[in-house]
Amino acid sequence: MNAQLHRRLSGKIVAATHNKGKLAELRDLLGPHGLEVVSAGALGLPEPEETGATFIDNALIKARSATQASGLPALSDDSGICVVGLDGEPGIYSARWAGKSGDFAPAMSRIESELAARGAAKPWRAYFISALAISWPDGHVETFEGRVDGDVTFPPRGTAGFGYDPCFTPDGHKRSFGEMTATEKHGLPADGSLALSHRARAFQMLALACL
Q: What's the CA gap between 39 and 13, in Å, rounded?
């Protein structure tokens, strides 16, 4: 967006997610900026149907829905893993591959089996995308998108993080996201250098523009 259009954030904001892992990361990122973060789940807000064609589309759907229901500014994240050998799948359907139970173990197994069935050459390349959207009650919105590249590796390793973290090893590292602490994964470097995770990279852009 044009820098002249950026809107500053202050006071109370809704984290437009019902995902506990994602909520924890958003709170970690927003906490140092003095914002009061309340979750969509705590407010009893409905989860809108994600009908967008892109991560940005779906992030906007969730942020706008939370703002409309709460009357507060809302921050949402739509994120997922895109596997090169699967033509970018699961992509925006990453959560849906885990089903209603939210169990990502079968989803990770599906990635491995489909790559093997296609005879995809190793290393199996992939990237995580995080799209952040902020909406205000007057209809103003801001969007930011971060990306981190790496390999999908099996068997999955580690119990930290959530989602596909145990099977993703970011470039330049030997440990998966599932083996990293929260600070290692999405901590914001004090020297302003690029953060590691896709969500932290998107948040760096947001912080420069809106905080």
A: 8
The CATH number corresponding to 3-210 among 3.40.50.720, 3.60.15.10, 3.90.950.10, 2.60.120.280 equals 3.90.950.10
Q: Does residue 4 surpass a pLDDT of 80? A: no
- Both tokens of 141, joined, read 């919105």
Q: Do the beta carbons of residue 190 and residue 202 sit within 8 Å? A: no
CB 56 within 8 A of CB 135: no
pLDDT over 70 (residue 3): no
165 carries an active-site annotation: no
Report the alpha-carbon distance of residue 204 to residue 29 in Å, rounded: 9
**Is residue 14 a contact partner of residue 70, using CB atoms and an 8 Å limit?**
yes
**Tokens 């169990």 sit on residue:** 103
Report pTM: 0.93
Angle at 109 between CA 172 and CA 165, to 5 degrees: 35
What is the DSSP-derived secondary structure letter of residue 8? -
Catalytic residue among 28, 77, 78, 165: 78
pLDDT at 2: 41
What's the CA gap between 54 and 57, in Å, rounded?
5
Which of 130, 142, 133, 137 is CA-nearest to residue 12?
137
C-alpha to C-alpha distance for 25 and 15, rounded to whole angstroms: 10
